[in-house]
Write a structure and sequence with these properties.
Alpha-Beta Plaits, single chain, 2 domains, alpha+beta, globular
Amino acid sequence: MLIKAVITYDGSEFYGMQIQNNKKTVQGEISKALEKLNIDTKIFHSGRTDKGVHALNQVISFEAPDFWDLNKLKKSLNNILYPYIYFKKIETAPLDFHPRFSAKQRSYRYLITKKFTPFNAKYTLFYNKSVNLNKINKALKLLIGRHDFEYFAKTGSCVNHYIREIYEAKAFEYKNLYVFNIRGNGFLRGQIRIIMDFILKINEEKLNIKDLKKQLNKEKLISKHLASPTGLYLERIWY
């Protein structure tokens, strides 16, 4: 049977989602856990996350023998993977389901804190500068729509095209956090982190709205640095 699972993980413990030789990855650890249960299968995921990036609702799929009780399988995997990876939900899926290619929308969340403690250092970006939410949301609004995001992708991204559509991009304050939400039909490697770095430079007046328009329209490559992965979360996948 084909299994669809929703998982959450602490990305600070891993070199990303995608399996890599001689490195601890989320996919690699799940594969090892399945092997311990005598399940030899290939794991597919909705999208790779970079080293240090977290996930609230990553979706994966794999095949498992029909005799497995899904509740028992979930409990067994969570016991093995504790405490950094957790299976929130396990269910059977149609045989043509693919976590990446069947996805309709994805959303990411980026968390910035204005109050540092050692206990949030791996899970938020500490930002000790003043934040102009009005300016930030003006810049984020420009991203909404269908654009060629080639200048907002990591160099060496292997894709057929760079056109992606963003449906929502906004920032708001919540307690000691600034929360950034970006939702679209798909994202390129490094896209959210490059966008976040650009937006924060606009906030600091190192760049401006016109610079964002120029890079978005591919008139000029102005800045392609990556924001820290620590505050980034894969939030949700829609099917």
